[in-house]
Specification:
This protein has 494 residues and is an alpha+beta fold. Helices cover 61% and strands 9% of the residues. It contains 24 helices and seven strands. It has helices at residues 11-19, 33-49, 56-83, 90-106, 108-117, 145-158, 164-168, 178-191, 218-233, 242-252, 259-266, 270-283, 291-298, 300-306, 321-344, 352-360, 364-370, 374-386, 391-398, 403-413, 418-426, 438-455, 465-469, 476-493, and strands at residues 24-28, 122-129, 132-139, 199-204, 207-215, 238-240, 314-316. It has a five-stranded antiparallel sheet. Strands 6-7 form a two-stranded parallel ribbon. A hairpin with a 2-residue loop joins strand 4 (199-204) and strand 5 (207-215). Helix 9 (218-233) runs antiparallel to helix 18 and helix 15 (321-344) packs across helix 24 (476-493). The longest helix has 28 residues, at 56-83. It is elongated and about 90 Å long.
């Protein structure tokens, strides 16, 4: 969560939040001009990373209007309180509004500092989630019943106008500055193909939330899915680091080597684990998500062939830092998830051996896409060109926005069991996972969030509290302690 004293745009954090379907939140108590400009910059960057740049100018106006309304609502609450007027009483409300604007503008700094002391905030929340983008303005004061009614009256009034010019030539309710603004907001939304239904005002639980819902272009969504399937269909190799493969090849030549010892070594690397599980599931067609079981099924002699340079399915990749980081992240999540399953879900029949592999493979789509060969990518981009897919689709694919579905497509192609495919698909969206593997998917999600929390690429407020409560993780202190303990244990295994 960002506050009004910070002004630097963290583009990578915004990009990461979009890829992980996490909310981005900015909170201010006084809304100085610098903060308003900062919010505009964040919105612009967010829309650009979502490949929705064409909406920026229209939504920037909407944002300015909505945050000004929220700020005004907080100031109004303080003003009425100090004047001894009951804001819930319509007669008192009408009386107070006659002098509200003049009185507060004459000494606005006083009213803003007073509302800050009272803890009244204005919060911007941005989130891309599945097939929609959400823009919300929160303030922690509920609307009165007649305020709520007036807003809906103004929404109804907006239907009478067909253009902004027409509105500007009319005199609307001047006692409420939001009157004109709401009408223009609706007209702005219409210019980008939206309707009044995409604009929502919710007032409950001590907050008022004004929300704009932007549906993601269905053609782009379909294109992303088709491109993910094309990527999986054209996948013929597994990327490996040569040094890692040579270590296993050497280990297999030891006369007294055992399957448990081989499994321990292979399990620390996603590519080495993929080799065995791909062979068992797609070649031998034996459903398996346990690495020791897979190695036992394959047998020592076949293992020597699989982990040798003779295996033409293996493709060496350069040991770039980004690749190592991705491999390390996969191992880390597998370790975290395994231990979370043992310690937090021991009574829920979550198989820790299987969840280790689910954690290791959770970013399978990113791993395979990041290390794709030029020939493989050419096949994908050729389809993009031939079938007329929008250019933004390949950008979104490159950004990793659809990596869950891509990993799912690869896992399905290789005949991996349904639970493993499902955890890959839903690991950023566990609340929508089928019940049969919702618990294991939630564990993968928490493990992933712990890693990113320690990296400082995710803040605690961004993590779904409902999922954390499933495991009795209520406070940030507890979450942070569990994450640090998991990391310390992981580092001892390296």
């Amino acid at each position: 969560m960002l506050d009004e004293n910070k002004r630097a745009i963290d583009k990578e954090k915004i990009k990461s939040s979009i890829r992980l379907w996490l909310p981005i939140s900015i909170t201010t108590y006084t809304l100085p001009r610098t903060m308003e400009l900062y919010m505009q910059d964040v919105l612009s960057t967010f829309l650009s990373e979502c490949h929705q740049e064409h909406m920026t100018s229209y939504l920037s106006y909407c944002l300015s209007e909505l945050i000004a309304n929220a700020k005004k609502a907080n100031t109004k609450w303080i003003y009425f309180k100090e004047k001894g007027l009951n804001i819930e009483d319509e007669a008192d409300y009408d009386t107070g509004m006659k002098t509200f604007k003049e009185d507060t503008l004459d000494n606005i700094d006083y009213w803003l500092l007073t509302q800050k002391k009272e803890g009244l905030f204005v919060r911007l929340v941005l989130q891309e989630y599945k097939d929609k983008i959400k823009i919300e303005i929160h303030n922690n004061r509920e609307l009165t019943l007649f305020e709520y009614k007036r807003i809906h009256d103004k929404l109804a009034r907006a239907r009478k106008y067909s253009s902004i010019d027409e509105v500007m030539n009319k005199i609307l309710d001047t006692s409420e500055g939001a009157g004109l603004g709401i009408v223009i907001i609706i007209l702005m939304l219409e210019k980008i193909g939206l309707t009044e239904e995409n604009y929502q005002v919710i007032s409950e639980n001590g907050e008022t939330i004004t929300r704009i819902i932007l549906p993601v272009n269905k053609e782009s969504d379909t294109a992303l899915k088709d491109l993910s399937e094309t990527f999986a269909d054209n996948l013929t190799t597994i990327p490996v680091f040569q040094t890692k493969l040579e270590e296993i090849d050497k280990l297999l030549d030891e006369p007294d080597i055992t399957i448990p010892a081989i499994s321990k070594k292979i399990s620390k690397d996603i590519s080495l684990s993929l080799i065995a599980l791909h062979y068992v599931n797609s070649i031998m067609k034996v459903p398996c998500t346990s690495l020791p079981k897979a190695l036992d099924i394959i047998g020592m002699e076949t293992l020597k062939l699989l982990y040798s340079q003779k295996n033409q399915m293996l493709r060496y990749i350069n040991p770039l830092d980004d690749d190592y980081n991705l491999w390390e992240h996969s191992s880390r999540i597998a370790f975290y998830a395994y231990n979370l399953a043992r310690n937090l879900a021991s009574e829920d029949s979550v198989a820790s051996e299987e969840i280790f592999i689910e954690g290791l493979f959770h970013d399978l789509g990113r791993v395979m896409f990041t290390t794709a060969s030029p020939e493989h990518m050419k096949a994908v981009t050729d389809k993009l060109t031939a079938e007329g897919y929008p250019y933004t689709s390949i950008n979104a694919l490159t950004d990793g926005i659809n990596h869950g579905h891509m990993g799912y497509c690869i896992a399905k192609k290789w005949n991996f069991p349904d639970e493993l495919c499902g955890t890959i698909l839903y690991h950023h969206d566990p609340l929508y996972a089928p019940r049969t593997f919702s618990k294991s998917t939630a564990i993968i999600y928490i493990a992933d969030m712990m890693s990113r929390y320690l990296e400082k690429t995710v803040d605690f407020y961004q993590i779904d509290k409902g999922i954390l409560r499933q495991f009795n993780i209520i406070t940030e202190d507890k979450f942070s302690k569990l994450a640090r303990m998991a990391e310390e244990a992981f580092l001892k295994t390296r």
